[in-house]
Amino acid sequence: MCDLPQEDEKSKHGGLVSNNTSYDMNKVPNIQVRKFESGATRDTEEGKVDYEGFLSPIVLEEFGKYMNKHRFQSNKELRDSDNWMKGIPKEVYMKSAWRHFHDWWMEHRGYESREGMKDALMGLLFNVMGYTFEVLKDEQNKEKIDV
Hints:
Low-confidence stretches: 1-19
Mean pLDDT: 84
Number of strands: 4
Shape: extended
Distance between the termini: 39 Å
Number of helices: 4
Strand order of the largest sheet: 1-2
Helix content: 40-55%
């Protein structure tokens, strides 16, 4: 048995204080902890999403440039960067994605496209992200209704 610190409203030290509550350590999950030369400790990265490894900073930079360039509407007004999160029908994303995919395919086959390779790829990325955003919103709304 081991005493583990518990939160106490009257006396807090780093958010936790010992109140002499005993726990059976056999029931506490065995979590691997890393200890650094400084003495600091952290859980391992096992099972955690590795955004730094999965994403490319140069691709995200190019995507940001593409999105910024397309903030200017045909009427010369500047839309908010998160305007797309207000909701665009999935059918609109699908049709636009096919146009960008076609441009990508044209460039891949050595033909000239409407806007070039990078814009084709970034446009496709935008449409995939927007469509996915709508799918995730639909799932969250369904979960709220089912509760």
